[in-house]
């Protein structure tokens, strides 16, 4: 029996990795989820063939990280939980997360002698968000992130590798050993535990309406291959993610994004925001849309910030550095757009390649240009060899001196000196939508008057206000686990 379970877990992990590898690109170029070879979960489309109305205690819209965390806590509180997922596979954008999850004061940091505190995490988050963030929600996020990491570890997650992403003043970004992609691993842990706890996940089932009666939420209407039906519930959690794949919505809120690519999965269309708005939910910060500065422009494929975190520099087409590579995403994106042709190159050495296994995926996809020497790399990238060599020598001097006199980069631990050397072309693409539904500290959705909409909760990227004008890398995963858990716990108290 134990052997069977192990085999089943391995199979789920293999299928999630296949979905991650297949779908971690643009929406435009990746086609449908079926074409991507994504996975059906056990309770998928074949089993729920009859479109009959049904009832449960809690219904969760969206089987990404936030929805699954909320589902687990609501189940822990003793409630029957049904999760509906419009794609044929679970995971959403969470499946694509690569860099890691931020938290201060974890056992992994302690094991690596990293001193950190929730207060520093709070300050970094507020500064990164240009102080537009809701301070109460950021306090909850940063105070509870370490506990969220330990909760995941308790369920079988490996988050022992700790690095740094842009805008953080301390190494606090947690990911699996060797710097492997964090998202597929977390989705595997969450979905396996959800299955073990008897949580029903209905894939290929799209929520199309949230039902309200006498000022209280009473369920949702869903559609699947068999038609439309109602799932009545005492509580509804909106966990549908952001709207980074909805071109119309993106341009409506920020017309400068016309023509931009996106790092998001095709299901990130803002459904939950639109559905909740139509029953009176208040929205906040909708115009705050983040571009990620290191997305390969040809494949529209995101290169994790951990490459810079582990020591890579950014150089323009002339071979010169132009920004503090570990600045916040808004700053680095803007600086890149000011360079010739609006893109740049990540440049790093072999030691860095060996420090981050995610890089092997970029090599396999043909995104990485290689040179035995810096001269060879410069030639391959069409740069002046002398300029690139000079740039790298200067940077290595800054590393030795512990101070970046040109751009004030703080994390200067590794020089670029061990060949072969590598370059990846990168530029900005839409990445995260910071705006969304307005919630209180218990994750209850608020209406335009600031009152609670009874029975309606929202978590994850569908929520606005937490990240202010700019989300820090690694803070989304912290957000969805912390607030996902709070939603499940609040429902436990409220029902
Ligand atoms: C390429 C990439 C890399 C990233 N890397 C990191 C990282 O390293 N660290 C970090 O902190 N953050 C990272 N992020 C951001 C982070 O992954 C997301 O913000 C987060 O995963 C969102 O989680 P969520 O649960 O709110 O939404 P999602 O994970 O997107 O899940 C929402 C789910 O709801 C489903 N859904 C939508 N509408 C409906 C509907 N009407 N009915 C039913 N289901 C519906 C969707 O299909 C989806 O499965 C990354 C994002 C991307 C795109």
Give me the number of helical elements: 16
List the ions, cofactors and other small molecules found in this model.
flavin-adenine dinucleotide
Unreliable segments of 5+ consecutive residues: 1-10, 20-49
Oligomer: single chain
CATH structural fold name of the largest domain:
FAD/NAD(P)-binding domain
In round numbers, the mean pLDDT is 91
**How many domain modules?**
2
Strand content: 15-25%
Adjacency order of strands in the biggest sheet: 7-3-2-11-21-20
CATH superfamily of the largest domain: FAD/NAD(P)-binding domain
Commentary on this structure:
- It is a single chain.
- The protein is of the alpha+beta class.
- The protein has two domains: about 1-290 and about 435-495, FAD/NAD(P)-binding domain; about 290-430, Flavocytochrome C3, Chain A, domain 1 (Alpha-Beta Complex), CATH 3.90.700.10.
- About 35% of the residues lie in helices and about 20% in strands.
- It has a six-stranded mixed β-sheet with strand order 7-3-2-11-21-20. Strands 13, 14, 15, 16, 17 and 18 form a six-stranded antiparallel β-sheet that branches. Strands 1-10-9-8 form a four-stranded mixed β-sheet, covered by helices on one side.
- The longest helix is centred in the N-terminal third of the chain and has 22 residues, at about 1-25.
- The radius of gyration is 22 Å and the shape is elongated.
- Residues about 1-10 and about 20-50 have low confidence and may be disordered.
